[in-house]
């Protein structure tokens, strides 16, 4: 079993399938609330150890080492007194902290990170502002206001657009989730309301909420009179969070969230007492059953942290001591943010496509006739997942977004001008039946399943073909076929008029969910010839599906109609 920091997206999917099948299903059904910590933003903003390093360097670079009364030296001594004697031997205060041996710097900053709230509360003589070290030494504006989202942030917003998450609780001050929503939808707040103050909750109208219960750096910089004091970082702020009037509505919402939805923590140790108190107040009355699937409390960790164990012991009460090992083992999802969120996204898309395909098949077909749907879509999912570089997730996610945007924009509109993420559906997977039949997504999903089944059987291979803006490239016996999907004849005409599809091309296949004119073949005699120019091939999936008595006949008819 790979460690959480080295597992691939494909291996994460295998882990979910084999050991935690209820997790992916629960996420797709919208049954989990996300609880996020700094671990999801480490490549975009400074983490807690780096914050400690900035404090040390700010004080070290300004102190007079030979003057015991120097206010910077006095403050630094107070910070460093939390270190053990062996740890203090790793200090190199005559050098900038970035010049320290890497192991020494890591040991010192990670040790002090365990008490970061106390470090940030360290007084500096002459400074009346309690948050001076955070605001100036750490530099909130320089460290936490960037707007270049990473793979995790994009995946979270895509999952939210797909209806998987309704509540995202974040201890992070950064703007990266908002930036991801902007990049995917064109506007911050179009789908996700950022909530901090009571008025934010009162005016919320979007499908999901981002609960920034420790504040927001961008708002603090833009409007410091209101939001600067709402950046929760120092020990008194954490200890008195329960009594902070500005956060009373937030805290009430968080307690209700613990009671109403299952918890999935990613990049978050739950070490702060204010967070633990939320679970203390909310979880016991919820009567969560530790043995029930999907599990009520999950942590993306290799090994559980003390704060996370506190959450479990609080939630399961008297059942926890006797079942500790089983509870803690079932609560771990051994994959960190990037592979886990990417895997969950691919799984949700697979589950939705499978649900659409199930609705698109004849109702009388027995489960054995429907089995190809899961087999085909699972093969597509795993093939795509295998393309993810375990060391560079962002390019993979960006390519996935581009492919989905292109394919779904062409499918619905016959153009690629939209430029925004188009979800398969805006609700959780169990609500796909409410998506209008006229969208044709049921027939399109059946087509995808058949293509995946053929690829799994070795009948052909599939790949994306972004170079020509075709959603899919099919290779079979030395020839290439460019596949396009269209909801109906009007969309297909738009594709042709907009120059995406060449009507005279004999290497292009257009799969229409419904069509009054596209071909449907039921015997080899009506199959397109391979030796002559055929022009654009169009196949009506509704006719292929409704004209078949079983799966074998349908797949055969599809191949004949498509000349495959």
Question: What's the short version?
Answer:
Helix content is 47%, strand content 10%. The protein has 564 residues and is α/β, with parallel strands linked by helices.
Describe the structure using short key phrases.
3 domains; six-stranded parallel beta sheet; five-stranded mixed beta sheet; 11 strands; 47% helix
Kindly describe this structure.
- There is one protein chain.
- The chain contains 25 helices and eleven strands.
- It has 564 residues and is of the alpha/beta class.
- The protein has three domains: 34-44 and 166-332, no CATH class; 48-141, no CATH class; 339-562, no CATH class.
- It has a six-stranded parallel beta sheet with strand order 3-4-2-1-5-6. Strands 7-8-9-10-11 form a five-stranded mixed beta sheet.
- Helix 16 links the parallel strand 5 (262-266) and strand 6.
- Helix 3 crosses helix 6 and helix 16 (273-282) runs parallel beside helix 17.
- The longest helix has 24 residues, at 337-360.
- It starts with 8 loop residues before the first helix and ends with a helix.
Please describe the topology of this protein.
Layout: H1 9-19, H2 21-28, E1 32-36, H3 48-60, H4 71-80, H5 85-88, H6 102-113, H7 116-120, H8 132-144, H9 151-161, E2 167-170, H10 176-185, E3 192-195, H11 198-203, E4 208-212, H12 217-222, H13 224-227, H14 235-239, H15 248-260, E5 262-266, H16 273-282, E6 297-300, H17 306-316, H18 324-331, H19 337-360, H20 367-385, H21 393-413, H22 441-456, E7 461-465, E8 470-476, E9 479-486, H23 489-497, E10 508-512, E11 537-540, H24 541-546, H25 551-562
Parallel strand pairs: 1-2, 1-5, 2-4, 3-4, 5-6, 9-10, 10-11
Antiparallel strand pairs: 7-8, 8-9
Helix pairs in contact: 1-2, 1-19, 2-19, 3-6, 3-8, 9-10, 9-19, 9-21, 15-16, 16-17, 19-20, 19-22, 20-22, 21-23
